[in-house]
């Protein structure tokens, strides 16, 4: 488990990762938001590719834990490269300050996209945050996902990106997994960085077909789970 905040490692501290991307330390959970082995690499491998979003003609992404927006920027960069539309719906109950999102994203993929610029401008102003620029709609609800009304049969991709099950167990429960499964469109794919046996069993128990895949840098395996049509 990564070290929590201490006088030497203050919460909000920005961490440079080996692929040149950054992450930060969460004040509330005492854990890094993204992989210390490569935050951008994890976003792309586990979430964008893990859900097939890099091939989808019009992805609809539902994210649990918007965090620092690293997964959102990776997704933005991907849809911009292919010129396809994106509808992104995220939940975040403990928003980090806009300066942290800005500092983590600076110079990174997707950071030049008008949707990212608009997000930084509107962050902390209203809930939900709604960003609409040509081709991209982003909605961030600043609420506990356990209390949210999730749209049924909606998501082509679900990014399950809470903190670790040990520190953030409430987003890895059977009850939430069942609600997330119902938010997936038929053939929609859920991805998560965890490969823990209890996470696999929880997703399978929610009716999803779960498979292990090779992990991102620093991790042997991660998971994807499909809602079969
Ligand atoms: C690992 S970080 C997500 C990193 C993020 N996906 C990114 O790309 O930067 C986990 C996030 O989930 C949020 N979170 C944890 N439990 C939550 C809950 N019950 N409802 C909404 N957000 C939650 C945390 O506040 C944190 O921002």
Automatic annotation (TrEMBL):
<dbReference type="Pfam" id="PF05430">
    <property type="entry name" value="Methyltransf_30"/>
</dbReference>
<dbReference type="InterPro" id="IPR029063">
    <property type="entry name" value="SAM-dependent_MTases_sf"/>
</dbReference>
<dbReference type="InterPro" id="IPR008471">
    <property type="entry name" value="MnmC-like_methylTransf"/>
</dbReference>
<feature type="domain" description="MnmC-like methyltransferase">
    <location>
        <begin position="117"/>
        <end position="227"/>
    </location>
</feature>
<dbReference type="InterPro" id="IPR047785">
    <property type="entry name" value="tRNA_MNMC2"/>
</dbReference>
<protein>
    <submittedName>
        <fullName>tRNA 5-methylaminomethyl-2-thiouridine biosynthesis bifunctional protein MnmC</fullName>
    </submittedName>
</protein>
């Amino acid at each position: 488990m990564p070290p929590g905040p201490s006088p030497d490692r203050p919460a909000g501290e920005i961490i440079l990762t080996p692929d040149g991307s950054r992450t930060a330390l969460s004040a509330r959970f005492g854990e890094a938001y993204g992989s210390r082995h490569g935050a951008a690499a994890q976003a792309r491998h586990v979430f964008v590719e893990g859900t097939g979003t890099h091939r989808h003609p019009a992805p609809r992404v539902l994210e649990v834990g918007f965090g620092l927006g690293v997964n959102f920027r990776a997704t933005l960069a991907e849809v911009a490269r292919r010129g396809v539309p994106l509808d992104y719906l995220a939940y975040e109950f403990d928003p980090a300050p806009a300066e942290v999102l800005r500092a983590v994203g600076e110079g990174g993929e997707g950071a030049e996209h008008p949707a990212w610029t608009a997000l930084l401008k509107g962050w902390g102003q209203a809930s939900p945050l709604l960003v609409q620029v040509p081709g991209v709609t982003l909605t961030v609800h600043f609420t506990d996902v356990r209390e949210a009304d999730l749209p049924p049969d909606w998501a082509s991709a679900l990014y399950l990106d809470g903190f670790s099950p040990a520190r953030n167990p409430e987003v890895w429960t059977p009850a939430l997994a069942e609600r997330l499964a119902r938010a997936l469109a038929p053939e929609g794919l859920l991805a998560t960085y965890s490969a823990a046996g209890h996470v696999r069993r929880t997703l399978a128990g929610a009716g999803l077909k779960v498979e292990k895949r090779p992990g991102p840098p620093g991790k042997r395996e991660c998971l994807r789970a499909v809602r079969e049509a």
